[in-house]
Amino acid sequence: MDNACRLYTDLAWLWPMWGDAADEYAHYCRHVSGLIELHATHPAATLLDIGCGGGKNVFNLKATFSVTGVDLSPAMLAQASLLNPESTFVLGDMRTFRLDRTFDAVLMDDAISYMTCLADFEAAFRTASAHLNSGGVLVVTPDVTVETFQQNRTIATPATRKGPRDELDVVFIENVYDPDPADEQYETTVLYLIRDHGRLRIETDHWTMGLFPLDTWRRVLRETGFEVHEGQYDAGEDEYTVFACVKTS
Ligand SMILES: C[S@@+](CC[C@H](N)C(=O)[O-])C[C@H]1O[C@@H](n2cnc3c(N)ncnc32)[C@H](O)[C@@H]1O
User: Fold this and answer.
1) Could you tell me which residues come within 8 angstroms of residue 238 by beta carbon, excluding any fewer than 6 positions away?
2) Contact 192, 202 (CB under 8 A)
3) What is the per-residue pLDDT for 237?
4) Among 135, 77, 82, 145, which Cα is nearest to 106's?
5) Ligand 1: which residue has its CA nearest to atom 26?
6) Cβ–Cβ under 8 Å, residues 103 and 133
7) Distances from the Cα of 102 to the Cα of 39, 44, 99, angstroms
8) What is the model's pLDDT at position 22?
9) Residues 18, 152, 123, 99: what is their CA dihedral angle, to the nearest 10 degrees?
10) CB of 178 closer than 6 A to ligand 1?
11) With bands split at pLDDT 50, 70 and 90, how would you rate the model's confidence at 21?
12) CB of 55 shorter than 6 A to ligand 1
């Protein structure tokens, strides 16, 4: 099965229609800012968003922090720049990039789910640590863990926007499935139902994603140089574990 992530390449134009930057992302970003303020040993002014995608989190954090975003996808970075012309965006792979500067805070949101083996997962947290000042805070929120994964969960989400000229009705249908619970991966399959002036076009996407137990998250975060504070984020229908991790070494 391929792992092209069309939502971040040829179908990236659909991304602004998936979720509302000024609504659900705003609520989450207030939580993130609160954790940084609570745990940082110095007031935080700069933030690195690793896997920033289309920049919806950046949109909600840039009033509080001077934000730099890094992502693997040029198409997503182009959207992030359009939404946030005052912020800085850099192309990079979270397993390997080094910007030769450090920040007061780092956010790793849903993009960490694309780390599909332990070696990549650890490498991503080493990248986060390498970009944090001592006493700075990494906030990371697992989308799912082994404990919260729901086999065959399927969610249909109508788009919140109708395209640039009000011409599109789009529905995102997302299914998660773990064919082999013994490994560290699961599959996300997405159907995009795109009606352009009523005429239906169906596109598909298929992603391999990483799945680790909470104890692995805790251990890897400790081993990559963090003091780990664990809390919960209530997103309405779902509740997530959030790690606020202070860089100690
Ligand atoms: C769902 S999007 C993130 C959206 C983002 N939270 C926002 O605020 O708009 C997931 C992103 O992870 C990025 N990604 C996947 N693997 C990556 C990697 N190895 N390094 C950096 N970014 C990666 C994808 O390119 C994609 O833009």
Assistant:
1) none
2) yes
3) 84
4) 135
5) 53
6) yes
7) 17, 12, 8
8) 66
9) 0
10) no
11) low
12) yes
